[in-house]
Amino acid sequence: MNGGRVAVLAGGISSRMKKPADSEVEVDESLISDANLKAKSMIGVGKNHRPFLDYLLYNARQAGYTDVLIVIGENDDSIKKYYGEKDSDNDFFGLKVSYAVQIIPAGREKPLGTADALYQGLKARTDWRGTRFTVCNSDNLYSVRALSLMLRHEHRNAMIDYDREALEFERSRIERFAVTTKDDQGFLTGIVEKPSATEIEAAKGKDGHVGVSMNIFAFQYDMIFPHLETVPLNRVRQEKELPDAVKMMIDERPKSLFAYPLAEHVPDLTSKTDILPVRQYLETHFADAAF
Fold first, then answer.
1. Which of 44, 65, 77, 147 is the most exposed place for a label (fewest CB within 10 A)?
2. Which tens digit of pLDDT belongs to each residue from 200-229?
3. Helix count (H) and strand count (E) of the chain?
4. Residue 134 pairs with which residues in a beta bridge?
């Protein structure tokens, strides 16, 4: 077990969320304002304007996590203002919340990507060396079950391998999700970003299942850290991507990351069109949640 440590990546600039809303987006002006001004995980989509990130942290607490590291952007203070101004040991409903800031390098308008975000986070938490931890996005609502699997798994490293058919998004969106390839024992051999139809077909398992990555992993600090430090810029996105660092790790150590299959939806808050369906999901699934 990883001792209940989770790193939440929230340092992006939310460029897609900040694009002007389409005319068919029918949500409160207060939520549009949140989307334009705050980190997207802080949009008040929940009851009484509770931010989206609260629900992820609620599930993390229910799964058994206690130590939360949030990697935040240097130009957004909405997360720190809400969860506590101290750099570490902010109490939030029994969770201990700390922060790391993902600095945007000189000459760039955007941060260096998810691998860099985790690298900056782990540099701030050297007390995690020699331990296991979970890492996930701040704009996806992972279930208690998924978070529990990452906390209690029995392998050196692990990830959740989501069944594409269980995701409740439009087909065109699902087609763009990164697909996973595994060996016959279920160990990850690759993550294919923006896959072609041929690559999707090749990723099918014997049961016809196509797994996709929603960027939730469990790592041994000392195994992933060197690759976060040395991963090159992705040739297409010109960012340091976590899947590329993972590929470096499993190329060096085959069978070092097990992909746990899971068939369930993962609410996603990427653009303004996601606000209404996420609100409806929270109303249905968190009506009795006790924060």
1. 77
2. 999 998 888 899 999 999 999 999 999 999
3. 10, 10
4. 6, 218
The model scores a pTM over 0.90:
yes
Cα-Cα end-to-end distance for the chain: 25
Beta bridge partners of 190: 181
Using alpha carbons, list the distances in angstroms from residue 84 to 70, 77, 81, 130: 11, 10, 6, 27
Residue ranges and CATH numbers for the domains of the chain are 5-285 (3.90.550.10)
Task: Give the 3-state DSSP-derived string for 72-113, with helices as H, strands as E and coil as C.
Answer: EECCCCHHHHHHCCCCCCEEECCEEEEEEEECCCCCCCCCCC
Question: How many whole angstroms separate alpha carbon 82 and alpha carbon 103?
Answer: 20
Structure tokens at 102: 């993902």
CB-based burial, 244-265: b 16+ in 10 Å, e otherwise:
bbbbbbbeeeeebbbbbebeee
Angle at 186 between CA 183 and CA 67, to 5 degrees: 130
pLDDT in tens, 63-118: 999 999 999 999 889 999 999 999 999 999 999 999 999 999 999 989 999 999 99
Report which of 216, 222, 214 is spatially closest to residue 253, judged by C-alpha positions. 222
